[in-house]
Amino acid sequence: MAPESIVDHRARAALEFRWADGTQHLAPYQLLRSSCPCADCKAQRAAQHDGQARLLPSAADLRLTDIRPVGAYGVQFVFGDGHDRGIFPWRFLRELLEKNLAQALTAADHG
């Protein structure tokens, strides 16, 4: 299910997603860019596990230039480095954001 709203917090380099159940997630651009589900990015992530470095813009240099709806299915982000191939289905996006939040909370508990 699509979020009720997406707010771009450019100064924080993050998007805020508000869902119908009242849940809110803050998604840093860096998380979205590094989690791109396109075939090219998946292949690059697999290569990274084989010891090959993956070059992405630094968090400070990463910009989001457009957000394109993809029907009722999901959304496509256009980044300042020209990358625009990934389509983020709503379910994938929500699971990514919930996983990221859980990891952040676990790190905070152990830090």
TrEMBL record:
Gene3D superfamilies: 3.30.2020.30
Top-level division of the source organism's lineage: Bacteria
Record has Oxidoreductase as a keyword: no
The keyword Zinc-finger is assigned to this record: no
One Pfam family named in its UniProt record: GBBH-like_N
GO terms, molecular function: metal ion binding
Sorted UniProt keywords: Iron, Metal-binding
InterPro entries (UniProt xref): GBBH-like_N, GBBH-like_N_sf
Location of the Gamma-butyrobetaine hydroxylase-like N-terminal domain: 9-94
PANTHER family hit by this protein: OS02G0197800 PROTEIN
Descriptive protein name: DUF971 family protein
